[in-house]
Write a structure and sequence with these properties.
alpha+beta, 28% strand
C-alpha cells in the first residue's frame, strides 16, 4: 500500500467506462492526450476498437477502489507504428493519463505510474517499456524520467511529433531504490545506526 492507499488496475469496459474517462480526456490538462477534445461517442468507439484488438489493452487505475487514472498497454510491433522506431523483442508500449481530480495531488502521478510499471514488469516477457510523449509535454517527460525512463529520440507518429522514452526493468528498479533511499530520514552525526 502506498501513501495514496491501495492502487490497482482493472480492465476498462468501453460501454460503462466511456462516460467516466471522457471528462478526463477533454480537460485542459489533458491537451496532449490523443483523444483530447473527442466527443463521448468517439471515446466509446475508440475503446471498443481497443477492446477488439489482440495487441492492445486499456485499464482503469483505481485508488482505494475509485477510478483515478487510465492506462493503455500495446504491442508496438502491431499498434501505432512510428516512423523511425523499430520495436525490439520484449518492448511494450504504454499510454498513461491521470484523472484531473487526482492530478492535483503532489506525488500521485509518480505513485500511479510506478504501480503501472510494476504491473507491466510482472510479466517476464516485458523487457522494455516504451512511451511516446508529445515533444511539448515537458511535465510528462519529467514524470517518466523519475520512474526510470530515458529519453530516446523524436519520431512522427499517428498523433504528431513525439519523443520516445525507454524504461528497462533494471532502470525502473534503480529508480525505485533511489526514491526509497531519498525518502529515508537523514542520519545525524553520532546517531546509532
Amino acid at each position: 500500500m502506498s501513501t495514496f492507499g491501495t492502487l490497482a488496475l482493472r480492465p476498462l469496459d468501453p460501454f460503462t467506462d466511456a462516460q467516466l474517462i471522457h471528462p478526463w480526456m477533454t480537460h485542459p490538462r489533458s491537451v496532449f492526450w490523443p483523444l483530447w477534445g473527442a466527443r463521448l461517442h468517439e471515446v466509446e468507439r475508440a475503446y471498443m476498437h481497443v477492446a477488439a484488438e489482440e495487441h492492445h489493452d486499456a485499464f482503469v487505475g483505481l485508488r482505494d477502489g475509485e477510478p483515478a487514472f487510465l492506462v493503455e498497454r500495446y504491442d508496438p510491433r502491431h499498434v501505432e507504428p512510428a516512423d523511425g522506431y523499430e520495436p525490439e523483442p520484449g518492448d511494450v508500449g504504454l499510454r498513461f493519463l491521470v484523472s484531473p481530480g487526482a492530478d492535483g495531488v503532489a506525488g500521485f502521478g509518480r505513485a500511479a505510474l510506478t504501480t503501472v510499471l510494476e504491473h507491466l514488469f510482472a510479466d517476464p516477457r516485458t523487457v522494455r517499456v516504451v512511451v511516446g510523449t508529445d515533444v511539448a509535454d515537458h511535465a510528462a517527460r519529467e514524470l517518466h524520467e523519475v520512474v526510470g525512463f530515458v529519453p530516446g529520440y523524436e519520431v512522427d507518429g499517428p498523433e504528431g511529433r513525439a519523443l520516445l522514452g525507454f524504461c528497462t526493468r533494471e532502470r525502473f528498479d534503480a529508480a525505485v531504490v533511489r526514491r526509497a533511499v531519498a525518502a529515508r530520514p537523514a542520519l545525524t552525526a553520532g546517531a546509532p545506526v
